[in-house]
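Here is an idea for our session: we take a single protein and study its fold together. To get us started, please write out a protein record for me. Once you have written the record down, we can walk along the chain together.
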Amino acid sequence: MLVGKMNPGKDGDEVRGGETADDAPPPWEAPVAPARLDARVALPGSKSLTGRELVLSALADGVGRLRAPLHSRDTALMIDALRNLGTDITEIAGDQPFGADLSIRPADELTGSTSIACGLAGTVMRFVPAVAALALGPTAFDGDPYARKRPMRTILEALRELGADISDEGRGALPFTVHGAGRLRGGRVEIDASLSSQFVSGLLLSAPRFDEGVHIVHTGERVPSLPHIEMTLEALRERGVDADSPAPNEWRVAPGPIGARDLGIEPDLSNAAPFLAAALAVGGRVSVPHWPSSTTQVGDQLRTLLPEFGAEASLDGDVLTVTGTGTVRGVRLHVPEAGELAPTLVGLAALADGPSEITGIGHIRHHETDRIAALVAEINRLGGRARELDDGIAIEPAELHGDLWRSYADHRMATTGALIGLRVANVTVEDIESTSKTLPQFSELWHRMLGVDDPGRSEEESSTADPFGSPFSSLGL
């Protein structure tokens, strides 16, 4: 696995964010689809919901349970972080196919004097500092090499204005230390959250425990991924918290208790993106069960976005089915609220028979890697014609060829390489293990969707019962 990553610069230049481990596995051979698809793929819980509900459960007024949460690297980092602050989190047997339920017992008193590893998880580095400010003692935060490049200044300065003591030697980034005093004043704060909606959510989640709650006023032009903020507000309200948006670009949470809950986590709809897009790229249909009829997840926008490329999308009960012909048409999309879907959408555009522009996604330069530069570099590496825009990517039709697709240790870059590999022979994806950030089962589910063997599984594993309780079934490939 990569210790660091290669980060793309302008015109495909490379800037190292760390060194590659000598024992890194060979690139993953992306399978070409052998036929039209007819498949059904079940997916584990939402990363965004799992992270939020873990924080709220740790700050609640009683023991809670999360059913069918996501088990991934990001989840493990969040659990470790909250445990280090005194929260008791245990796995309990459940009836879900992707892992155990979680029981969360809040600490009587949060305690610091610890350290927290953030990995590349934006939710950990941006949600947990406010929790650490409520603990007694210092809490040191650090992460993977590229995590030190991710913007943090906005939330660190906001926490200082709300009464927190934070030392970062002026970096405005990892590493930093939160010197918790057991409480936080809170109150009104102005921030520019143009780079990430997580700056807002990171304050809102812990705000009921602040003495004065919080009133956030965004001072920038726009906030990306607004549905994620609504997700946070809805999660708070479901626990009895007084939380609302009194005006555009303002959010308020009143001080008060956070109710304990026993709740189920929706499947991760953004993780469904490459699987549903596969039906469009190859032709045929792919269905995802347990799709909620109403949700705050950004991934629900796939129902309207994929038809722009020529797909048909239908929700029958709780099963979403996307059907495609194998022909992808060019698009002009402005998707500021759907940045996490952008890599999949750009991957489809690279396979389209007409030109595309996907804009409103400038903020994804600050995700796990500079995704705009990375996508342009890798599409062009395969013979494509992509170029950076100030706020997005333009792609012209081109005949793609096989080559190495670098992932930059970014899970959504890796899955985009797999999507393109369905149509383009001899694509190999660097560091497919990066998908463990949000979907550790990606490689196996991908091969099963295609009805081909996963070379990563031994014959013994393949001949035994499905370890995920049959989350996938073929419908006649």
Notes: The first helix runs from residue 47 to 58.
